[in-house]
């Protein structure tokens, strides 16, 4: 059997399982048990297709850069097919685990509500808290690199604050700043300040002594040493903190909304819909949060590659 025929057969088996799980009536595995045999065959076919695509990428064929995203996309499709097949095939209760198709319908049917929640949680609380926490962490680290007193004082405090659970901070912030987005932004500031401070401080300390000697030889001023030597060397550490904080900020804002919020927001929606047993809406809100976190992280990763094109870590990754 030639390679192209094998690929066609694998694709047809995967499409057959896709048709089965999305277009057959609920409980089809209970009614016709032999159909479950097609599921492992479809997963095996998908694995073979992903292996073929990976070989094409390794061989660096024409347009391999466009083939590379197909591997994770196909893997995600297999996960969705497995999830849809098990929940719909065995007619699992929606309260325990809704099928992806039901979550998608809830997502499409409630776009205005989900958009209002997204604006309240992400565009107000997360972005404001993320900006204030990251900028203040960077500024304080820039001061602390010149002061042993600040370093010795703030590093133990950072470890102490990092150990405080968010469920303990959130009610206090709600009492201090009210029920609106400001209290959630305050929680995000607390969660993002110290990761940025510690990473920036570590990056500013990582400067090569030879570079310092060179700047000293040139009689560079302290501002010139910071801008041309310390800051560029600290950028990989700063981007690590930015990416870490992008997901922590969203988690912090959502959890904080469990302790008091106006009748809008992702955390409010999740807690309310769980009480109403409307689990499709809960999963649709989780989908929005996951998409927002992934897009934020991906955008920062792309920005890091664009800004740090000269850094050995980025150049070695691009060479692969």
TrEMBL record:
Membrane topology term: Multi-pass membrane protein
Transmembrane domains' residue ranges: 12-29, 35-54, 66-83, 95-115, 127-145, 157-178, 185-204, 249-270, 282-303
Gene Ontology cellular component annotations, sorted alphabetically: plasma membrane
InterPro entries in UniProt: MetI-like (IPR000515), MetI-like_sf (IPR035906)
Places the protein is found: Cell membrane
Keyword line: Cell membrane, Membrane, Transmembrane, Transmembrane helix, Transport
Nucleus as UniProt keyword: no
Keyword Phosphoprotein annotated: no
Signal peptide per UniProt: none
Annotated GO biological process: transmembrane transport
Domain ABC transmembrane type-1: 137-307
PANTHER family: ABC TRANSPORTER PERMEASE PROTEIN (PTHR30151:SF41), ALKANE SULFONATE ABC TRANSPORTER-RELATED, MEMBRANE SUBUNIT (PTHR30151)
Name of the molecule in the record: ABC transporter permease
Lineage of the species this protein comes from: Bacteria, Pseudomonadati, Pseudomonadota, Gammaproteobacteria, Oceanospirillales
